[in-house]
Amino acid sequence: MRKKSGVLAGILIIGLCAGCGQRENAAQEQETVGVLDEADGSDEAAAKDAEAGGQAVTMQESEETAPSAEEEEPDGTGLDIAENGRRLTSEELEEYTEWVQDSSNYGFLLSDWENPAQINLYQVFYCGAGISREGTEEEKQAHLARWNQPEIYTDFWAMDKADVDALLSGKVGFTYDQLVAEGNQGMEENYYAETDSFCVEAGDTNYCQFLCTDGVMDEDGETVTLYCDGDDWVRTCEVRVSVAGDRRTFLGNHIAEGMVRDMEEFSETHEEE
C-alpha cells in the first residue's frame, strides 16, 4: 500500500505542476495581448493625430493662398468702369475694330497725344488717309524740284488741302491751319502753295492693323475708351473717342507699349541732355 500511495502522490504533483504551467502560459498570453492592444491603440491614435494635423495644415494653406475679398477686382475685369458706365459687348468691339482700321482713322493711333496739337499729322496722312489722289504732272515736277530728285522712286500721291481740312474737322474738330495755330508742327515739307495741296512720296510702311480687345462706355454714354493691340510699331494703346451726337471724334490716344513710345522717350531724354 505504501508503494501505491507514492505513485498516486507523484501523479498528483505532476498534475498540479501541469496546471500551474497552463495558468502561467495563460497569464503570459493575456499580458502579451494587452501589450499588443495598447500598441495598436497608440498607433491608431497617432494616425488620427497625424490626419488631423494634415487637415489643419491644408486648411491653413488654403486660407493663406485664397485671395481676400479686398484683393479681388470688383467687376472681375480689371477695367476702370464708372458706376453707371458699362463694358462694351463683343459685337461692339468688332464694330469699333473695323472703324479703327479704316484708312482715315488708324493714323490717329500712331502718336501719343492728349490734345490735337500733339498729333503727328505725318503719321495720319502718310498713306493718304483715304483722301489721296494721283498727283498731277505739275505736282510731280514741284516735288522733284524741292527735293532735288531726278525721278519718283516710290508711290506718289497728292491731297487737296480742302480735303485735309474736312477730314481733320470731322476727326478732331480742327482744320489744318487751326491745328498749326494751336502749336502742331504741321506738314509744311509736303505742302505746295502753288497747287494748294500736300504731296507725298511714300509706301504703306506705317500701316498698323489694330484690334480692339476691350472697351468701356462712360456713365453719360458719350465717351468710349478703347483698348487696342497693334504690332511692334504700336503694341498697345488706349484711345478715347467721343460718340456724342451722330459722329465719332478722337479725344486722345495713349500708347502704352511700342516702338513709337520708345522713340519718343529716347528723343525726350536726349533733348534734356
What does this structure look like?
The chain is an alpha+beta fold. Among the domains are: 87-110 and 208-273, no CATH class; 129-206, no CATH class. Helices cover 45% and strands 17% of the residues. The protein contains seven helices and nine strands. The protein has a five-stranded antiparallel β-sheet with strand order 1-6-7-8-9. It has a four-stranded antiparallel β-sheet with strand order 2-3-5-4. The longest helix has 64 residues, at 2-65.
Question: How many E strands?
Answer: 9
Largest beta sheet: strand ordering: 1-6-7-8-9
Distance between the first and last residues' Cα: 139 Å
Query: Can you count the helices?
Result: 7
Low-confidence stretches: 1-42, 56-76
Instruction: Report the helical percentage.
Output: 40-55%
Largest sheet: 5 strands, antiparallel
Mean residue pLDDT: 78
Shape: elongated
Rg calc? 44 Å
Tags for this model:
273 residues; 9 strands; 7 helices; five-stranded antiparallel β-sheet; elongated; alpha+beta; four-stranded antiparallel β-sheet
Summarize the SSE layout with pairings.
Layout: H1 2-65, E1 86-87, H2 90-100, H3 121-125, E2 133-134, H4 137-147, E3 156-160, H5 161-172, H6 176-181, E4 191-192, E5 197-201, E6 211-217, E7 223-229, E8 236-242, E9 249-257, H7 259-272
Antiparallel strand pairs: 1-6, 2-3, 3-5, 4-5, 6-7, 7-8, 8-9
Offer a quick outline of the entry:
The chain has 273 residues and is of the alpha+beta class. Among the domains are: 87-110 and 208-273, no CATH class; 129-206, no CATH class. 45% of the residues lie in helices and 17% in strands.
